[in-house]
Amino acid sequence: METEIKIGNYNTLKMTRVAERPNPHAYGGKESFGIFLDGGKEGEILMPQKYVPEHVKAGSDVHCFVYLDQDERLIATTEKPLAKVGDFAYLKCSWVNEYGAFLDWGLMKDLFCPFREQKRRMEIGESYIVYVYVDKDSYRVAATAKVDRWLHDVRQDNDGGLHKGVEVDLLVWQKTELGFKVIINNRYAGLVYKDQVFQYIHTGDRVKGYILNVREDGKIDVSLQPLGRRQTLDFAETLLEWIKAHDGHCPFSDKSTPDDIKREFQVSKKVFKKAVGDLYKKQLITISDNGLELTKKG
């Protein structure tokens, strides 16, 4: 079966031969500048010498990332980019010309984002949430800041397995008056309400989240904390370790303000009180006017 190359993605290709060129000063009159890999109908694909793994030989399988170089030729690398085709990512603009912006995605050649694919003119040094795709006209990998049209409707995916309490991967997209828009599992848009945020987050952060609700209109509510009993158990363990690390004493208690608790532990006062109750029932702590004290059992 002929190899089909995935542009802007990882491929496993067989080495066919060493790439050599004339050099009268080298042994045998030739020097190696890399290896060629079998690209099937695309022909041989060059992997420059600096990316060639050790001990590779003809017939060896090489796991590599394939994209187009400066001359629009297929090239292979063992470098790992910050994103591949089909990914949403937070990338920094490294330079701009009359055609668009170029984003640093961890490879020798920057990722192009044409002006028509920018929501606002990108500026050098600033970072942006983008989607990586293959341009059908130029056949090259490109980026777009107009990410909305690449997001999926969870209703068309038969809920996408997103049930209440399910743990998901989040990319923080943008801050709004309601909270933070996020991209869920590299596929769906969601929202974390600001009263559910107990930790500092910023556009581009990748964090774990938990599904709160999938609405009939397809909108998805997300929490940054586990739900219900699981959240209490997780934080109870965290609180116990915190007390141990602070000489067996915690100055926070039921009398502490929600803001103080949120600032120190990144949880609500309700979760804090439930965790304290759990530790007390297990006789791991005692409660006094001065806060919490570790017991001998604790």
TrEMBL record:
Please give the Gene3D superfamilies that the UniProt record associates with this protein.
Nucleic acid-binding proteins (2.40.50.140), Winged helix-like DNA-binding domain superfamily/Winged helix DNA-binding domain (1.10.10.10)
Q: Tell me the ranges covered by the S1 motif domain, including all copies.
A: 163-225
Q: Which domain of life is it from?
A: Bacteria
Instruction: Select a single GO molecular function from the record's annotations and give it.
Output: nucleic acid binding
The record's section on InterPro entries has: CvfB_fam, CvfB_S1_st, CvfB_WH, NA-bd_OB-fold, S1_domain, WH-like_DNA-bd_sf
Similarity remark: Belongs to the CvfB family.
Q: What name does the UniProt record give this protein?
A: GntR family transcriptional regulator
Q: Which organism is it from?
A: Hallella mizrahii
